[in-house]
Amino acid sequence: MRGPLGAVIGTYSSSDGTTPAGGIIRHNRKCRDIAVLVIFIAFWVSMIVNSSFGFNQGNPLRLTYGLDYKGNVCGDKHAGLHEVELLYWLNPNQVYQSGLKDSKLKLVDARSICLLDCPVPSEDSLNWVCDYPEGDIRLSMDDWIDSNYNYYEYLTPEMRNSSLQLQGPCYPVIFPSVNVYWTCQFIARASNVSLKHWQQMGGVSINEDIVIDESIHKYINSRSAVLKRYMADIGKSWPVLIVCGGIIPLFLSVIWLLMIRYFVAAMPWVTVVFFNLLMVSVTMFYYLKVGWIGNDAISPIIGEHDPYIHVFGRELTHLRVGTIMMTFMTVVAILTSIAIVRRILMGTSVLKVAAKVIGEVRALITFPVIPYCILAVFYMFWISAALHLFSSGQVVQNNCNSNCCAYDLLEKKTNCDRCCGYSIRYTPHIGISILFHLFGCYWATQFFIACSSTVIAGSVASYYWARGETSQEIPLLSVISSMKRLMRYNLGSVALGSLTVSFVESIRLLLESLRRKLKVSSYEPDNWIGKAAYRSSQFFLRCIGWIIKSVNRNAYIIIAITGESFFRSSAIATELIMNNILRIGRVNVIGDVILFLGKLCVSLSSAVFAFLMLDTHKYKSAHNKITSPLLPVLVCWALGYIVATLFFGVVEMSIDTIILSYCQDSEENGTAQYAPPLLMETLNNDQNETQRLTQGSQ
Q: What angle do CA 210, 211, 217 make, to 5 degrees?
C-alpha cells in the first residue's frame, strides 16, 4: 500500500514569501524521467534533420505536375517552364505501343513536353506541336506559346522529313486531348481531316485504337499518381486549413467554454441537440450530392467527374456507400442521445463543478491559446516538411530497350542514345523518413496536449486544496506556477506518457495495415483459435489504447500534484480510481460523453465549412484546382478535433482533477475535508440514486 501524499500536498508559498490559509501544492519536488526527456530532445533534433533533408531534396511541384523528356517538372520556374504546366505526349505511336500488353516501351519513356493548354486538331488543316525551341530555331518560349507550339514552317527539309517519321522536332496533332489532372488525355477518335493531310504529306502510319486512351488513363489513375495528387491537394488548400482547421474551431471552442461558464445548465442539452442537428444536416448533404433527393447534379465527394476518366461508376459507388454509412451513424447518434438524455441532469451537475472552477481560476479560459499557438506553428512547419518529403525522390533517367529516337535540335541530327524518359526514384530511406515524420507529428501532438493537461490539473488542484477559497493570486498565479513546475520538473514524465500513447497507437495501426493485407490476400487462420485471435486482436488493441489514454490523463493529474514519475503517478491514479470506482464512476462517464459530443460538434463543423469552401469556383479551376476535397476535409476535421481537445481539456481536466483530489482527500482524512460543497452534493445525489436503484431491484 502506498503512503499518504500529505508530504507533497501542503501549503503554498505566495510571491511575497507568506503562506496563505488553506493547503495547496508545495514546491519540494525534483526532476523525473530525465532519460526520456533526453530522448525527446534527440527526437526533436532528428525531426529537424529529417525535415531539412526534405526541404533540400523535395519539390512539391512533382506531386502535381509531370516530368518532360528532359527530366524537368512542368510549371517549374527554375527550368523556364513557369507558364507551361500540362504534360503532353508528342508521339501518338509511342503512346499506343506503351499500352500494348507485351511492349517494352513504357509511357514514361515516350517523348513528352510541357504545354500551356492541350492541343486539338484543326478543322481544315493539320496542326503541329513542336519541341522546345532551341538550336537554330530562334524563338523565345513566349513566341513558341503564342504560335501554338508550331514552327514547322521554319524547319529544314531534313527536319521535315524527320517529323514525317514521327521523330520530331515537330509532331502532328491527330487526336484531340483534354486536360485531366494536368495531363493531356488523348481521346481515341482521330480527326479525319488531320489524318488525311498527314497521309497526303507522306507521314508514317499512325495507330488508331482505344489503347491510346487507356494507356494515359492507366498512368493517371495509378496508386502513386493518386497519392501524389491527394498530397498536393493539402498544399493547394492551405487557406482552407488555416480557416477551417484553425480559426473556426478556435472560435467555436472559446464560445463553448464561455457558454459552459455562464450557461452551464443548458449546455448539455445544447450540445446534444446541436450534435444531432449537425449529423442530420451532413446526412442530408450527402443525399443531395448523391442525387437521391433534390435536383442537384451529381458531384462525387472523392473528386469531380470527368468524362474522360472511366472511374465514375466506382466513385459514385463510394459516395453511395458513404451516404448509407452516414445514415447509419446518424441513426445510432440519435438513439444514443435519447439513451443519455435521462442522465443529462447528472452531467449538468458535474459540469457545474467545472464551471465554478473556471469562474474562480479565470486564466484557465485563455491558457489553451498558448499550446494552440505552439501547435499552429508546429503544424505549418510539419505540413510543409511533409510535402517536401513526399516529393524528395531523385529524378533519374530510365534504362529502356525500346526505339525512342528523336531529332536533337542542338546536335542537328536524330539521336537514339539516352532518349529514354525520366522518373522519380524513391529509395527505402525516404519511406523510413516519411514514417518517422508521421510518428513525430503524433508524438508532438500528444506531448503538447499532455503539457496543457498537466498545467490545467496543477491549477485546479491548487483551487481544490485551498478549500475552494480564492485569493487574489490564485486566478493567475496558480496557472503560472503550474507552468513553471511543468517546465522545471515534469517535462520528462509528460514526454514518457505521450510516447506511450504514440507507441501503442503506432503498433495498432501497423497491425491494422497487416490485417488488411492479409484480408486482401484471402489469408485467414485455419483453426478456430487462430480465427478468434485474428478477429479479436483489433478490439483488444483499441481497448488497450483507450485504457492507456485514460490512465495517462489521470497520471498527469498526479504528476501535477505530487511531482512523481510517470509510472509511479499512473499507479497512484489507478489505485485511487479503483478504490472509489462506485462513488465516482457514473459521474465521470456522463461528463466525458457530453464533452466528447462537444468535440465532435466542433470537428464536424470544421469539416463542413472546409467542404463548402472547397466547393467554390476558386478550388475548381486554374492553379488552385484540387483533385478531391477528401483529404483536406479530413485534415480540417482532425485539426478541429485537436483544437477542441485543447480547449475542452479545461473542463475535462477540471472535472478529473477535482474528482481525483476528492478521492485522495477522502483516503487521507476519512472524509473529504477540502471538497467544494457543489461536488459533495453531486456525489451524494448519485450515491442516493444508486442505493435507490439497488433497493428497487431487490
A: 95
> Among 358, 406, 386, 127, which residue's Cα sits nearest to residue 262?
358
Tell me how far CA of residue 519 lies from CA of 79, 126, 478, in angstroms: 46, 53, 53
The distance in angstroms from the start CA to the end CA of the chain is 35
The kind and range of the H/E element at 302 are none
**Alpha helices, DSSP H, located in 563-580:** 566-579
Contact 260, 651 (CB under 8 A): yes
Whole-model pTM: value is 0.82
Instruction: Please choose, from the candidates 82, 214, 260, the residue with its C-alpha nearest in 3D space to the C-alpha of residue 647.
Output: 260
For helices 344-360 and 677-697, give the axis angle rounded to 10 degrees: 170
Residues ≥6 apart with Cβ < 8 Å to 64: 75, 182, 228, 229, 232, 236
> In three state form, how does the secondary structure of 138-205 look?
CCCHHHHHHCCCCCHHHCCHHHHHHHHCCCCCEEECCCCEEEECCEEEECCCCCHHHHHHHHHCCCCC
Quick count: other Cβ atoms within 10 Å of Cβ 590? 22
The alpha carbon of 388 is separated from its chain's Cα centroid by a whole number of angstroms, namely: 16
CA atoms of 496 and 503, how far apart (whole Å): 10
Measuring CA to CA, how many Å separate 552 from each of 311, 486, 639? 46, 16, 21
Nearest to 458 by CA among 578, 580, 357, 581: 357
Please give the Cα distance from 98 to 278 (Å, whole number). Answer: 50
Q: Is the dihedral of CA 289, 295, 298, 299 positive or negative?
A: negative
Alpha carbons 205 and 207: distance in angstroms, whole number = 7
Q: C-alpha 466: how far from its chain's center?
A: 42
Torsion of Cα atoms, 570 then 575 then 581 then 583, to 10°? -110
Please, which residues bridge with residue 414 across strands?
A: 407
What is the Cβ-side half-sphere exposure of residue 451, based on CA atoms within 13 angstroms? 23
For residue 298 the three cell numbers come to 451529381
Written as one string, the DSSP assignment of 496-560 is HHHHHHHHHHHHHHHHHHHHHHHHHTT---SSHHHHHHHHHHHHHHHHHHHHHHHHHHHHHHHHH
Q: Which residues contact 11 (CB under 8 A, 6 or more apart)?
A: 19, 23, 24, 26
Helix/strand/coil (H/E/C) assignment for every residue in 238-292: HHHHHHHHHHHHHHHHHHHHHHHHHCCCCHHHHHHHHHHHHHHHHHHHHHHHHCC
User: Do the strands 128-130 and 177-180 form a parallel or antiparallel pair, or are they unpaired?
Assistant: unpaired
Choose among 557, 587, 582: nearest CA to 570. 557
By CB atoms closer than 10 A (0-12, 13-18, 19+), residue 418 is exposed
Q: At what angle do helices 581-614 and 677-697 cross, to 10 degrees?
A: 110
pLDDT digit string, tens, across residues 562-583: 888 888 888 888 888 887 776 6
Kindly state the greatest CA–CA separation across the chain. 106
Residue 563 confidence (pLDDT)? 84
Cα→Cα distances 212→108, 208, 282, 600, Å: 14, 8, 41, 48
Mean pLDDT by 10 residues, the chain (698 residues): 43 40 54 91 94 90 88 87 88 86 83 90 89 87 89 88 88 90 86 88 85 86 85 89 93 89 80 80 68 47 41 47 61 62 59 78 87 94 92 84 79 80 85 91 93 90 68 62 88 91 80 65 56 62 67 85 86 82 64 82 90 84 79 91 92 85 77 70 57 44
Query: Is the separation of the CB atoms in 300 and 316 below 8 Å?
Result: yes
